[in-house]
Amino acid sequence: MQERKTEKVGLLLGLLGVICFSLTLPATSVAVPYFGATIVGLGRVVLAAIIVAIVLFMRKEKLPTVRQFKSLLLVSFGAVLGFPLLTSWAMVSLPVSHGAVELALLPLATAGFAIMRAGERPSLKFWLSSVTGAIAVIVYAVYLGLGQLHLADLALLAAVVILGLSYAEGGQLAKELGSWQVIAWAILIAAPFFIIPVFLHFSMEMLYAPITAWISLLYLAVVSQFLAYVAWYSGMALGGIARISQIQYLQPFLMILFATLFLGESITWFTIAVAIIVVTSVIIGKNTTVTKTQTTAVPSKALNK
Fold first, then answer.
1. What mean pLDDT do residues 82-102 have?
2. Which parts of the sequence belong to the EamA domain (predicted)?
3. Stretch 250-261: mean pLDDT
C-alpha cells in the first residue's frame, strides 16, 4: 500500500514537472527575439544560480562527494548547458509546434539511458507503448511537413539525447542526494563558466525589452531551470525513471496548447487525435512492469526534501 502511494506521489510530481517544462519552449520563443539565444540559454542559468546559492547556503547543505560530483557533471552538461542553449538557438527559426513534436522523443531517450545508468529493465509492453507514442509523434511531424532535417532540427535532436542522459542520471542521483539538490548543485557547478559569455552578449538595449519578454526570461530561470526539475527529479526518485518518463509524451501537446493560448498558434483536430493516441500510450506505459538489477530503497532524504 505504501509503495503504491509513493508511486502515485511520484506520478503527480512528474506531471507537475512536465506542465512546467511545457511552458519552456513558448517562453523561449517569446524571450529569444529580444535577448538572443546566449542570454536566454545561459543567462537564465546565471539568474537561477543566484537563487540556488542562497538556498544552499541558508540550508547549510553538505558538499557532494567526488562520486556524486561526477554524476552532477552529466546532469549539468545536459540540463544546464546543452538543452537550454540548443533549444534557445533552435527556437530562433522554428515554431513551438515544430520543437514540441521533436522533443516528444525524449521519453525514449530517457528510458534508454535508464537501462545503462540506473539498472532499470522495462518490459516488452513498456517498449511497445513507447514505440507507439514515438510513431504517433513522427507521423504528426510528417503531417506538418517536418520530414527534412535542418540544423535547428539536429540541434533539437541533440538536445533530446543529452537531456535524456541528464534525466536518467539525475533521477538516480536524487535517491541519495535529494531531488532539488541535484539540479541545484548542477546549476551552481555550471554557472561560473557562463558569466563571461553572458556578459559579452549583453547589451543595454535589452533593458528596454517588453515586460512579456522579461517575464518569460524570469520564468525560464526560476521555474524551467530550477523548480520544474525539483518536481521532476522527485517524481523519478519515487516512481522510477522509465515509468515517470512516459508522462513526457504529454509534453508536446501541452506545449502546443500553451502556444495556442499565449502565442496564437493554431491547433487542429489531427493534433487532438494524435494527442489521444499518445496519452493512451502513457496510460499503458505507466502500468507496465519495470524491474531493476538491484532493489534500492528510496532514502528518507529524497522523500522529505
1. 86
2. 9-139, 152-284
3. 87
